[in-house]
Specification:
The protein contains 17 helices and 22 strands. It is α/β, with parallel strands linked by helices. The structure holds adenosine-5'-diphosphate. Adenosine-5'-diphosphate (ADP) binds next to helix 9 and helix 10.
Length: 501
């Protein structure tokens, strides 16, 4: 466990040494209040940068810029192919700056740099490249109508998809760059303009992305980026009367606040919220594959994934073998600073998360669960929590019912693939993702049909693709991210009917 942060290259050190400003109307500006806030390296607790603290006044300026850019700026007048080329160029720039962006992500979020490079940065670039293609492929329909109230008259009817307008986007800290890409890609390709509020824990990579956005040729005001706190900047954005739509990724509790705040002007809302995803290993599973998969499902990104496979159900005949296997894999995971090339798991993102997760670990112990491994925070400097597996759990325990957002697995055996198993797997307020492990793919497929989850992975986990829709049933959210499906979040459908003759 590190005691001080490794040095990074001089150009990044120089970038971090300056207070990082906000992006409003194509210019980098300090907050109107003049305030800044510190950003910390979660592996050491050291300050790494100061960032301008945007609040309601800055949000208002940014919304005005986005409105101008939408109504009369070049974005509205640009052809789809020009828009697509700019978004594609942004994807290229992300790849050109991959190493730098991965370094910032490791420093700010704590995740291993090699993981940030392979996953966060690569998928972010791919999201821009994929979404760039949609710019020229957004189509309406012609519709034959009966027009019963106007007998004998001919009409021509067609739908025209139009951008929804000014979009407020609020993102979390677990995949700071990737969440920005998931949000910005579809908004830009549909022709919307954006005010993006980044998470206060991890503003750095999205602010650097803002520089690349200008370099790619996105006109002033089309993307505005505000760093600041949820209760001030985030709340102001979700309540702003001139924002047409808000897209939010974060906790279910804050999702509810967003819905309430958006009621004033009834702005459209899409939400990607929490999860407590079941991962089911059948008796006929490839056990080694399932052990590797169950380990990655819950411990990837330190468990700080809304889709983490955090509830493991294993057939009783192989339960001990699978749990011991996952525990053995967990024991191999090397904790350390994200910039250390050997590190496989970094710290949690903040003191707040450390206190939350270790509090839940304590509740698990107190409520009688058995910690097969881990079970308490590492302590000392940085916010490190080791991989933890609880067995002997009951459905009412907090560690089973609540989203933990840390490297914590609860495992329970089952006897039959029956209604009771499906009911238990679906026994959650959430419905984001699920996993099924079996060599009988027909059986796995039929279980997949019965799970109330927006994504089901069979004999795999965490497989994301810009082309695949992702989102939740139940209290895991509204709408879908990525794929063609996400375009609906950013388009209005206009039906135009013309009388002929
Ligand atoms: P997490 O639990 O993952 O920290 P949150 O839901 O608290 O996630 O935060 C996700 C994003 O929502 C962050 O950008 C945060 O600043 C923002 N946020 C927090 N509270 C509010 C709020 N009341 N209104 C709008 N945004 C908020």
């Amino acid at each position: 466990i590190p005691t001080s942060r490794p040095k990074v290259c001089p150009s990044i050190e120089a970038w971090l040494a300056q207070p990082r400003p906000l992006l409003i109307d194509g210019k980098w500006v300090p907050a109107l209040s003049g305030k800044t806030f510190p950003v910390f390296d979660p592996a050491t607790g050291e300050k790494i940068a100061d960032v301008a603290e945007g609040d309601a006044a800055d949000i208002d300026l940014a919304v005005k810029a986005a409105r101008r850019a939408f109504e009369s700026g070049p974005w509205a007048r640009m052809t789809p192919s020009e828009r697509g080329r700019i978004i594609h160029k942004l994807g290229d720039l992300v790849l050109e700056h991959a190493d730098e962006l991965a370094t910032l992500e490791a420093l700010d979020n704590g995740k291993p740099k090699h993981v940030a490079r392979a996953a966060d940065v690569t998928l972010s670039a791919d999201m821009f490249h994929y979404m760039a293609g949609w710019a020229t492929k957004i189509e309406g329909k012609t519709i034959s109508i009966s027009a019963l109230a106007a007998p004998g008259v001919d009409f021509f009817s067609a739908t025209r998809p139009e951008p929804i307008g000014v979009v407020g986007q609020i993102i979390p800290w677990n995949f700071p760059l990737l969440m920005a890409a998931w949000k910005l890609g579809p908004a830009l390709t549909t022709g919307c303009t954006v005010v993006l509020k980044v998470a206060e824990e991890t503003p750095l990579s999205a602010l650097r992305l803002g520089e690349l956005i200008l370099e790619a040729g996105v006109p002033a005001g089309v993307v505005n980026i505000i760093a600041g706190f949820g209760e001030t900047a985030g709340a102001a954005l979700s309540a702003h009367p001139d924002v047409d739509k808000v897209a939010f990724t974060g906790s279910t509790d804050v999702g509810r606040l967003i819905v309430k705040a958006s009621a004033g002007n009834l702005k459209k809302v899409s939400l990607e919220l929490g999860g407590k995803s079941p991962n089911i290993v059948l008796a006929d599973a490839d056990v080694e594959l399932a052990i590797q998969g169950a380990t990655a499902a819950v411990f990837f990104n330190h468990g700080q994934c809304c889709n983490a496979g955090s509830r493991l159900f294993v057939h009783r005949s192989i339960f001990d073998r699978v749990v011991e296997g996952v525990a053995a894999e967990a024991a191999k995971i090397k904790l350390g600073h994200g910039l250390n090339p050997d590190t496989e798991m970094g710290p949690l993102v903040s003191q707040v998360q450390y206190d939350r997760v270790t509090g839940l670990l304590a509740s698990g112990r107190q409520q009688g669960a058995t910690a097969v491994c881990g079970g308490a925070g590492v302590g000392g400097q940085g916010y490190f929590v080791p991989p933890t597996i609880f067995t002997n759990t009951t459905p009412s325990m907090r560690v089973v019912a609540e989203e933990i957002f840390g490297p914590v697995l609860v495992a329970a055996p089952f006897d039959d693939v029956d209604d009771a198993l499906i009911a238990e797997a679906n026994n959650s307020i959430y419905g984001l993702a699920a996993g099924v492990w079996s060599t009988n793919t027909a059986k796995a497929q039929s279980i997949a049909h019965r799970l109330k989850a927006g994504t089901v992975w069979v004999n795999c986990y965490h497989i994301f693709d810009a082309a695949l829709p992702f989102g939740g049933y139940k209290q895991s959210g509204w709408g879908r991210e990525m794929g063609q499906a996400v375009l609906n979040n950013y388009l209005e459908t206009k039906a135009i009917t013309t009388r002929l003759g």
